[in-house]
Amino acid sequence: MTVQDLPRIRLDDPFWNAYRQLIREVVIPYQWEALNDRVDAAEPSHALDNFRIAAGQRQGEHHGMVFQDSDVTKWLEAVAYQLAQAPDPALEATADEVIALIGAAQQPDGYLNTYFTVKAPAARWTNLAECHELYCAGHLIEAAVAYYQATGKTALLDIARRLTDHIDQVFGPGPGQLPGYPGHPEIELALMRLYEVTDEPRYLALCRYFIEQRGQQPHYYDAEYERRGRTFHWPSHGPAWMIKDKAYSQAHAPVLKQDKAVGHAVRLLYLYTGVAHLAQLTGDAEQATACRRIWDNLTQRQLYVTGGVGAQSHGESLTCDFDLPNDTAYAETCASVALVMFARRLLELSPEGRYADVLERALYNTVLAGMALDGRHFFYVNPLEVHPATLAGSHRYDHVHAVRQRWFGCACCPPNIARLLGALEDYVYLQREDSLYVHLYVGGDLDFIMAGQRWQLRQRSDYPWQGRIGFELDGAPQGGTFALALRLPDWCPTPTVRINGAPVDLAPLTRAGYCHLRREWQAGDRVELDLPMPAQRLRAHPQVRQLAGKVALQRGPLVYCLEQADNGADLHTLSLPPTATFQEFKGHAPLPQAVHLQAEGKRWEAPDHTAVQALYRQGPMPPQATPQRLTFIPYFAWANRGEGEMRVWVDER
Ligand SMILES: [Zn+2]
User: 593 C-alpha to center of ligand 1: Å?
Assistant: First the structure.
């Protein structure tokens, strides 16, 4: 693939334009300051300094995490997407300087990792289970691919290829090679991207090797643990816990034999994103089945209504089916970013609306919630219920914050949001044979070739606030036959379509979540999709004990929440009666353009119990309900008005 072959999409969408402007004008410059330790954060980054030290340009010690390098390369990847959208010579010059610095830190044999180069050069590749060298390589590769595609410059791609060629020599089944694979998957999905731009079959083969070696016996993590004298890097949960708990890094069984979504959520989702991409390019049906098996378990048994993944802080991991606590949820921002990436690859395997439904849920709720509306504060953990007074002094709530933070010692999430939102183009459309699928309702102009002609498709809407979406075809003077396949979201019970003003009977055209509008299209044809967005109550499967008797509100793709700023303290005493109806309104803080919801609710109190100051009391204690109007705001916009309580699931009574 060359730079010119990339799909040509220009996003132009009121909702996303604002975010993209924020990424360009605030987030990327802010993160540059953070990487240079010029942000007043509790834990400085040191990430660029580590490269300077590894390059011999500065004296000093390596600081920060063993994977600190990836903060820089993820920022570079986000920069690449900006440069792909519009030229920015100053930003490009800064990026080129960073790329030169990375090149200077690369070792003569291609090896590149500042932690080991500075701190433990003799210990390279001795602790794959815990030490992230292949993970960091993956992020460097992804940045290199994106930067090459955006600018046509090959400096970073050359660095990435030298590193990958080195890795390809170190790992494999041959004599003197290591039969290992990463503790933290990421390089798998990156190698697939590198293969796509270089057509180098060794990169595809290396990806396949890492995936097929995973979970084989005798176990590689145990073998390397013995070889290096039983040392371990992460003592937080006991000696060598990360090595012993193979499921934590999805290394407990070969990929084809894994039947449940387990372990560290981001590792799981990066791994299966790579597996799905490999399966799609090679046609490996067994790997495709394995991906769908994990997806089904994850999304039908372990997914938060906000598109969050990972029910516990311990190991940043999944727990078991139907275990979805609200207040101790982990739901790392990166996990939802990775879920979006996994969904994209599954859509490429088989375009089924259920993948895009989850993609949309994760994108519009947890991914967006990961960043403040000011672009300078971030959530790592995305709970569905917070009471600030409980956060201090309890390890149950480790890593949970009631307000977003400026930066993190482990800063994986902020640049992940920047790179995903910068590459939103990749998630909107899919062209397959004679069908053009529309996964997301994101406005913009698409150039595509179908039926031997060049077409333009213009998409316009006020999504996610309104569900009326207009499409207009242009170009293609001879016209041509193909299917425009529009996703019918799972949240919308009554979609309608008109073509050039005439209503379309959707039932015979709808399969797997898309309506397939197949006809001979002409320039000037117009399609109007109407997705009515009434506020709806969601109820959880009866086995989710944390959600019994509760409802969440959703309107369109957005999940809503109660905040203390609108509803007063003690949100747990509020309820939504089964008969309550919802009024929509705009103009409310913190997001005036948002559609907010109000309903007549109740507040439950027991004044006679409060009066006796007893924690428990015998006998009947009928609480009294007083009317209270409840105000719901979109979940992604919570915690933009200072510290306060929040909850997504509210008692229904
Ligand atoms: Zn993260």
Answer: 29
Q: In whole angstroms, what is the distance from residue 129 CA to residue 136 CA?
A: 13
Residue 538, helix vs strand vs coil: strand
Catalytic annotation present for 316: yes
Q: Please tell me the distance from the alpha carbon of residue 268 to that of residue 330, in angstroms, as a whole number.
A: 15
DSSP secondary structure code for residue 601 in this structure:
E
Edge-to-edge, what's the strand order for the sheet holding 468-475? Answer: 8-11, 444-450, 453-461, 468-475, 526-530, 496-499, 502-503
**Least confident segment among 73-77, 152-156, 451-455, 616-620:** 616-620
pLDDT tens for each residue of 113-172: 999 999 999 999 999 999 999 999 999 999 999 999 999 999 999 999 999 999 999 999
Which of 117, 82, 129, 372 lies closest to 227 in space, CA to CA? 129
CA nearest to 597, candidates 630, 564, 551? 630
Rounded to 5 degrees, what are φ and ψ at 293? -65, -45
Q: Which of 412, 413, 492, 515 is catalytic?
A: 412
Cβ density class 505-524: b for 16+ within 10 Å, e for less: ebeebbeebbbbbeeebeee
Backbone phi, psi, residue 10, to 5°: -120, 110
Catalytic residue among 77, 133, 224, 316: 316
What tokens does 510 get?
């709808």
Give one DSSP letter per residue of 442-471, joined into a string.
--EEEEEEETTEEEEEEEEE-TTT--EEEE
Q: How far apart (Å, rounded) are the C-alpha atoms in residues 390 and 644?
A: 11
The CA 225 to ligand 1 mean position distance, Å, reads 27
Where do we find the tokens 């995973």?
A: 214
CA-based radius of gyration for the chain: 25
- Per-residue pLDDT band for 612 (boundaries 50, 70, 90) equals confident
- In the structure, ligand 1 is a single-atom ion and the residues with CB under 5 Å from it are 332, 334, 412-413
The tokens describing 578, both together, are 């089964």
Asked if omega into 489 is within 30° of 0 (cis), the reply is no
- Distance between CA atoms of 340 and 364, rounded to whole angstroms? 11
Q: Which DSSP symbol is given to 39?
A: S
Place of tokens 């433990």: 120
Kindly list the distances between the CA atom of residue 560 and the CA atoms of 556, 582, 638, in Å, as whole numbers in the listed order: 10, 12, 9
Q: Is 472 a catalytic residue?
A: no
Count CA atoms within 13 Å of residue 586 on its CB side: 6
Q: Which of 632, 555, 533 is nearest to 364 (CA)?
A: 555
* Ligand 1 center from residue 123 Cα (angstroms): 26
* C-beta of residue 331 within 8 angstroms of C-beta of residue 464: no
DSSP assignment of 95-120 equals HHHHHHHHHHHS-TTS---HHHHHH-
Alpha helices (H) along 302-382 = 333-349, 353-361, 368-369
Q: How many CB atoms lie within 10 A of CB 364?
A: 23
Give residue 594 CA to ligand 1 midpoint distance, Å: 27
Q: What confidence tier does 7 reach under pLDDT thresholds 50, 70, 90?
A: low
